[in-house]
Amino acid sequence: MEISRFKGCLLGTAIGDSLGAGREGSFDISEVRDIGSRYTDDTAMLIGIAESLINSRGFNGDDMAEIFIKNYLREPWRGYGWGPPRIFNMILKDRRRWDEMLDKELYPGGSFGNGAAMRIAPIGLFYYDEPEKLRDVVHKASIITHSHELAIEGAFLQAYAVSLAVSESGPELDRYQFLQKLKESTRNREYLKKLQIMEDLLKDKAERIKVIKYLGNGIEALNSVPAAIYSFLVNDDLEESLVYAVSLGGDADTIGAMTGAIAGAYYGIGKIPIRWIERLENRQYIENLAERLWQVKRDKK
Ligand code: RVK
Ligand code: MG
Ligand code: MG
Fold first, then answer.
1. CA neighbours within 13 Å on the CB side: how many for 29?
2. Is the pLDDT of residue 170 over 80?
3. Ligand 3 centre from 20 Cα, in Å?
4. pLDDT by residue (tens digit) across 191-233?
5. Ligand number nearest to the C-alpha of 219
6. Of all atoms in ligand 1, which is nearest to the CA of residue 112?
7. What is the pLDDT of residue 82?
8. What are φ and ψ of residue 26, in 5° steps?
């Protein structure tokens, strides 16, 4: 497994997040090509997952929740969603456990936001060669804050897309085969429908407005994970994938972050424009984190 792809995945997330951060929630669908100076909660929580996988040499729920909380308390201003800080508080102050599906006490049926999917990529890297384990760990890492089926399935598809991207070895990406594998892996009809529509949109080279209409660009996992997968599949390089993802507007930082994770895992750090790498906040730390994650994975094999 190439270390450059682990680095590409984590840096790609932070860059996609920083590229979209300024316009989260806007209707602006023009193109931006320069990243802002800060990333948001998406990257902060993804860093937390990577730190915990390294720390525990795999998944450990208590440790992951503790790291999420520690990172949140250090930087509460990163622009977190409404639910997670409340859940952190329940764990910290009320001594609740990470696996109590605490989001069900905030939202009926639990949160279907994209907060689990946006942070999940390191799990896709770490368990890329263990698909059953991947599903199980994605489930556990999601329910700390997101236990709605749509949030968990979105996180699974995002992690699985990262695992496919990081292990893809052909000279050229077979988009339809990639999509086919995602379709075969999903256990949810609503995601399956979106993946089927995605195939038609790819074939038609559909207008952006149509993509937004059919795939969505919102804060719900179902309306953002498909948009990120599509942004990766419809473009031919990393830069264009990220510019395209953010140009869909809506939850731009998160769609940018998730696209960056998949595209970074596929293309590797070498294909990230230098001007983005140079401007990225905490770049060295994130790159080292990817290296450490790669080492822990290598030593476990
Ligand atoms: C601010 C009704 C529900 C729901 C349910 C909606 C950062 C709510 C990142 C809620 C991401 C929102 C984003 C987010 C990640 C979810 N019924 N509405 N059952 N479940 N929602 O609070 O971590 O930007 O409108 O779990 O998923 O950049 O406010 O947070 O864009 O989804 O936050 O869900 O958010 P939360 P999150
Ligand atoms: Mg964010
Ligand atoms: Mg967002």
1. 10
2. no
3. 8
4. 999 999 999 999 998 899 999 999 999 999 999 999 999 999 9
5. 1
6. 20
7. 98
8. -95, 170
**Do the Cβ atoms of 19 and 256 come closer than 8 Å?**
yes
User: Which residue in 35, 11, 4, 1 sits closest to 253, CA to CA?
Assistant: 35
Q: What is the C-alpha to C-alpha distance for residues 262 and 240, in angstroms, rounded to an integer? A: 13
Helices in the chain by DSSP H: which ranges? 3-20, 41-56, 61-74, 83-93, 121-126, 131-143, 149-167, 175-185, 189-204, 208-215, 225-234, 238-246, 252-267, 274-279, 283-300
Backbone angles phi, psi at 281, to 5 degrees: -65, 140
Round to whole Å and give the CA distance between 175 and 278.
31
pLDDT for 236 beyond 80 = yes
Residue with tokens 């830069």: 239
- Nearest 5°: the CA angle 81, 84, 89 is 135
Q: Report residue 287 CA to chain centroid gap.
A: 17
Contact 146, 109 (CB under 8 A): no
**Domain 3-300 superfamily per CATH:** ADP-ribosylation/Crystallin J1 (1.10.4080.10)
* % the chain with pLDDT above 90: 93
Report whether 110 contacts 147 (CB < 8 A).
yes
Does the model's pTM come out above 0.90?
Answer: yes
pLDDT of residue 1: 82
**Nearest residue CA, atom 12 of ligand 1?**
113
- Residue 104: CB within 6 Å of ligand 1? no
Name the amino acid, one letter, at 241: S
